[in-house]
């Protein structure tokens, strides 16, 4: 632990949502303080952080003061503007590093990176206009899905093209933003691996979880996932290859389609991930602490799971069920958000289903 | 959950040490905010609380502002001055209630209360001067232990009387404070039950842990404790009797001596307890969340344990071992205290020893 941050050091977190909140709580267990930076006031993270800066991403004075007040910077979402990161990085290290952010901020760059690593992805093509969309559909075929290259999450900025005739409307929906056409992948189910890489290069992965989405939003993750032993090994090796290629430091979420011909990478997220929330109650060291350990230069946990878990997201009106859920043997994790809007992640609940199988 | 605090409500915590810190983290999981009150600046709790008041216990304006800013008040230690509590209670409920505090603040009142409930305690007598000490020693015999009636913790304010000749020095050590003489109890080991009672009167207990002390300070708690099935039942029934007699709301620590003739109550603490820290990694709902659930009027967890655990306190210089401990599969819980003084609790570590037996 030569390079490790000592107890009492401060971790800066870019983004003050629920992921930042749970990172801050994990940091407190290691005796570390957190300072959150977010343009929005009163986000979920600030109330469990030692310090909070509420300022715009282009507020250079605020960014400088923030960077000078902390020992290392991490982030809870991948769309922090590059100029803000440049300014911070001149003062203090950012972990995970810029390469991971650059790759995951752009769906084409991400797919190119994965393909260059020899990993399977959905067929894809760049779409800038009607002509390139037509060419892409020619090659990939319908059904396919058109997505903005940047700034998409939870199914936002996406349009399905079931038949050629849907193409014009889908393209219009991109509002002129650079896009990617992705072919559909025939898969039986989706799993994700939450992997981590330490400052010393050590890699540790949690057991893959099986994800079920509704309306493009993660609904449930179940551990263990339905996977053969060799699929399980493949998933871990693949995650390790990605982490190492990026010289990554921190936790990453890797979403995988399980297909008859092997695992296909859906997408990567350079941060703690919703599909890893089960680790809070299934593991001694959860994904949030694992991420903090990595960015603070501490040794990683080994990812061992003591219990099988089902994680359910509480979205929008699901908060009405909290009184019933609270009366059952389940671990609630609420984010302290005042207003429950449709599609808004308000919390999640972990249920143990027995000792780890 | 008719009387339950809604997500976004604020819990006031009197005392800003590590127990307050871990209570605040647990509250965050339920979407609740915390506001800590402590005369000392920069305590462990403030950095994970939404608000902190640093003011003296007799600062009436600060106490009133604090009480007006929160929805309920709880405490992490039992020696909050009664006048401060009077002032707060005129504005907002205090949980656990005043009766539990009064009883546990005074060793004679506590013993009287337990005896009136029909529970076994060490033989004891009030000591105010040399004459009453002589009479007490006459009745109880040596060896015995002389303790201040109030404000003792971790072996402070105590003197052993091995032979009659030690009496004068022991009495001098009390500095004129009212005292209690307690006879020694022949016991094989000490266990503690962490019990909880909800606002609705429901009682839930965690499995008893076995405690090992060094120099009067808890060193290690192991779960499960060495107890027969009937001792286990006795321990739970006895804790429930205490909780109900006090119309208690919250978590209580009950320390018990295991003797050939049954369980003898050593002491009770009207708060989360060091010997319950194992629940953070052995249970889905730990003692801190259980306490928050109780004071917030939520349903209690059932106390179920998924894993066997050994909890080790990290005291003073033990912090030098943190790098080694961090490299093993164990859950560190550090309190963020800057200075490691001898006897100071700096953190603890939970190690899982297998699925619950």
Automatic annotation (TrEMBL), chains A, B:
It comes from Limimaricola litoreus. Catalyzes the ATP-dependent conversion of 5-aminoimidazole ribonucleotide (AIR) and HCO(3)- to N5-carboxyaminoimidazole ribonucleotide (N5-CAIR). This is N5-carboxyaminoimidazole ribonucleotide synthase. ATP binds at residues 107, 147, 152-158, 182-185, 190, 213, 266-267. HAMAP family: PurK. InterPro entries: ATP-grasp, ATP-grasp_carboxylate-amine, ATP_grasp_subdomain_1, PreATP-grasp_dom_sf, PurK, PurK_C, PurT/PurK_preATP-grasp, Rudment_hybrid_motif. It catalyses: 5-amino-1-(5-phospho-beta-D-ribosyl)imidazole + hydrogencarbonate + ATP = 5-carboxyamino-1-(5-phospho-D-ribosyl)imidazole + ADP + phosphate + 2 H(+). PROSITE patterns: ATP_GRASP. It comes from the Bacteria. GO terms for biological process: 'de novo' IMP biosynthetic process. Keywords: ATP-binding, Ligase, Nucleotide-binding, Purine biosynthesis. Its EC number is 6.3.4.18. Homodimer. One of its GO terms (cellular component) is cytosol. Pathway: Purine metabolism; IMP biosynthesis via de novo pathway; 5-amino-1-(5-phospho-D-ribosyl)imidazole-4-carboxylate from 5-amino-1-(5-phospho-D-ribosyl)imidazole (N5-CAIR route): step 1/2. The gene is purK. Residues 111-296 form the ATP-grasp domain.
